[in-house]
Amino acid sequence: MDGILSVLLDIFRQPSVIVALISFIGLAVQRKRFSDILQGSIRTLVGFLVLAAGSGVITEALNPFGKMFQYAFHVQGVVPNNEAIIGTVLLKYGSESAIIFFFGMIVNIILSITSRFKFIYLTGHVAFYMASMLAVIFNVAGFSMWEVLLWGSIAQGLFTTISPALVQPFMKKASGKDDVALGHPAGTGVALGALIAKITASKKRPSKSTEDIKFPAALGFLRDTTVLITLSMAVIYIVVALFAGSSYVETHLSNGQNFIVFVMLKAATFAAGVYIILAGVQIVLDEIVPAFKGISEKLVKNARPALDAPMTFGFAPNAVLIGFLASFFGGLLGMTLMAILGTTIIIPGIVAHFMAGGAAGVFGNGQGGIRGCLTASFINGLFITFLPLFLLPVLGDLGSANSTYSDADYGVFGVILGHVNIVGGRTVLISVILIALILFYSVSIFMNKRDSNNFEKVEEIK
């Protein structure tokens, strides 16, 4: 039994496998030919692996940048990085994390079936990170094993259903369609940024889209997204490398390679990663959306697949770069304020600001063009910088580690649950989860009635 559970958990921790299985089942229930089922499933699997490879290339290119930044500006503090903190957590809470993750998926499906919020969260690795954080919080709260698993699974299911729902109202303007959702723990930060971009957008003087930026004829080559990203990142890398100094870069990072050549290649590698991601996105969207219709028709009617942040990058590639820079600037400002206030310093996590900031830029651009992109991403940058500061106290011994969870959803869900426990204890914590469940269904019922009344009014007018 343990062996079977282990295999299942290994499968469901791989987003590429999950999405390929969804594609296989969706095409099968539509009674497609076996060759079409095989082709669609393999293309979906390969597309997700291409996307993951692109993310890995970007991470590899950004890691030395983070090290140069810390050395150049003599900054020491906590670096939000999911991959760094997860290794520590799993040593102590690995079993609970895996079980919460598994049953949280089931709760996600049940909530989608029984409410209007029909989002199936397919980004397995980030959902697993959330499950690990919930395991920490409920163990720190003093729950028994079965209580950790029960309430952790319910909280996990609520997260994987609510997070995409918060962003979805902004999806159509960002992408031009409404058949996919954002399945990334940046959800609350992206939604907040997009909402503020919408509120602050000028109707009299609307800002043009980031994708409509016009370059002079002599700079026409900058219309190529790959060229623009490479040159922009090269400037940023070179500036930070100059502050860090050639000796540091060549001794500790480049293995003796000239530091300017090294950082130029890292900038180009970053652009290559973005290019790979966009290629993978196109393959997956071409296959998973039609296949997912089969699942939604049979299991969860009108369900949308909630997919990782890079899935949105193809909607507005220029907004991704602008969003990253604006989000990172927000992180730098937040770090400066922390230094002035004398608090623990949260150092901007480069990967988090690229993924979350890029997605916020895309959705902000949909609401308010270039100004909306800058606004949404900057707000996201501040949000994911200050949230970890309030998350650290609720993580027990892990709160003193030099890394923590990086994205907005981890901060929002973790801060609420953790501080509720600190203030009111286990009984109040359980009450909050039950209240959240009641509110979830209440909002669903209210919105269904509102839509029904609006439909009846339209019919009366006709």
TrEMBL record:
Residues that span the membrane, as ranges: 12-29, 41-59, 97-114, 126-143, 227-248, 260-285, 306-329, 335-362, 374-395, 428-447
Lineage: Bacteria, Bacillati, Actinomycetota, Actinomycetes, Bifidobacteriales
Membrane disposition: Multi-pass membrane protein
Transmembrane helix is among the record's keywords: yes
Keyword terms of this UniProt record: Cell membrane, Membrane, Phosphotransferase system, Sugar transport, Transmembrane, Transmembrane helix, Transport
GO cellular component terms listed in the entry, alphabetical order: plasma membrane
Principal cellular location given in the protein's record: membrane
Subunit structure: Homodimer.
Signal peptide: none
Record-level GO BP terms: phosphoenolpyruvate-dependent sugar phosphotransferase system
Known function: The phosphoenolpyruvate-dependent sugar phosphotransferase system (sugar PTS), a major carbohydrate active transport system, catalyzes the phosphorylation of incoming sugar substrates concomitantly with their translocation across the cell membrane. The enzyme II UlaABC PTS system is involved in ascorbate transport.
Stated name of the protein: Ascorbate-specific PTS system EIIC component
InterPro entries, alphabetized: Ascorbate-PTS_EIIC, PTS_sugar-sp_permease
Localization per record: Cell membrane
